[in-house]
Amino acid sequence: MWRRGVGLVALALATPALLASAAHAQETVPFSFEAAAARLDAASSIRRASSADVTAAEEQAAAARTLNRPTIAVDAQVLRYQKTFDISLSDALGQAESVANQLLPGIIGDLPGVPGDILQAINDRLETALPEFFASLPGSVRLKTADTSFRPVATAVMPIYTGGAIPALRDAAGANVDMARARQAEAGNLESVNLVRVYFGQILTREALTIARDTRDGFDLHLRNAQAMEREGFLSAAQRLQVQVARDAAQRQVDRAELEHDTAVQSLARMLDVTAPVAPTSPLFVNSTPPGPVDDFIEAGTADNPRVALAGAGRDLAEAGVDLARSRLRPSVYAFGAYNLNREDALPTEPDWAVGVGARYTLMSSLDRGRMISAARARSQAAEQLERQARDEVRILIIRTYNLVELSRRQFLSLDSSLEAATENLRVQDLSFREGEAPASAVIDARTLLGAARLQRAAAAYEYELALAALLAASDRSDEFISYLQRADRVIAP
Question: According to CATH, what is the number of the domain 30-67+162-328+367-492?
């Protein structure tokens, strides 16, 4: 009675969870792998971020293409100023006095109707008064002016020769675009591998859950048979307890598999950005034939792998840095122009307009330009070595993942015979147990072995898909994964 009461309580507690699980299962959304890949293209934050990075790099490159255009600006100033002029009159007064002394006799002598003695007296008086008159004048004059001026000036500067700086900046901008695109491709490949991992990982956990439940149900049947045989005296209590322990262990495995499956469901739904649980419709699969010659993958990978492309773009960027460093040792030539938009209020020293050509050459700099060139060359050499290293690493990665594909493919195919043998072994051991010719441990071992064989086969298929996705990503052929899925000749149905 106590056990029956506990069972009723457990059933009452489990019923809401079972109902919720059933309702949850009804809300699942079926997704093929093709549909999941298309959904990921639209929902992936990583892909959107990498796409934005590419757009930013392309816009910067477009901006760098106009570096040789003139820069036109309007500079407007309102200023209050005061100017003082000191003008010396000494030379001017001396010249005026000399001229007056020369002209005075002629002017006096030409006066008509004036007696000569009177003219002479006037001339003598003027000659006496002129030095005193000029001596009384100041030797200098100070002029002071204060005013408010509005100075709108339009200026234009256009580079003619920059020593190679502009081409270097353009090359650097182009290298940044290549780097952004390489990162975008790398992010896409990683997302593709991750989708394979999560999508088929959910299928694997579901298959593991199915195997665990089948194993538990088989132990339930085995336990009922053992209990019946114990009541009839054909089986000892120790052997029945042995079956009971195995059945409880199978139940714990079911509980574990349920939690792992639920985690996988949540992971796939989160990755595809859907609210309802996703029900994968594509199966675990294996192609019984090899994926193709490994040299084809190596050739494609060393040419188009995003890691190699990223290293190549880094090399181009370093080479542009060398050209930019060299440009600092060369002169620059530019054209310029200015136009005063408010001539009436211009300062006396300001021109109405001006155009010209200028040149600039730095004779001495606080920065050692020669060492900067040496540093840029060293970075360029390092970038070349990194590119070579990237090619070698991609080659090794392709060979390693290719071998993993082959290993998992062969393991999957070899497990067919093991699965058949485990199935037949369980049938024989169960029959022998019911006839009293085999101990309970033999059936337990046989059923456990069958479950393990089924799980190993599913795991081998999953490892094949992961290795295949990694191989295709390393050779920049991730888009071909669907074609391998479509022509698969060995599948494990969802």
Answer: 1.20.1600.10
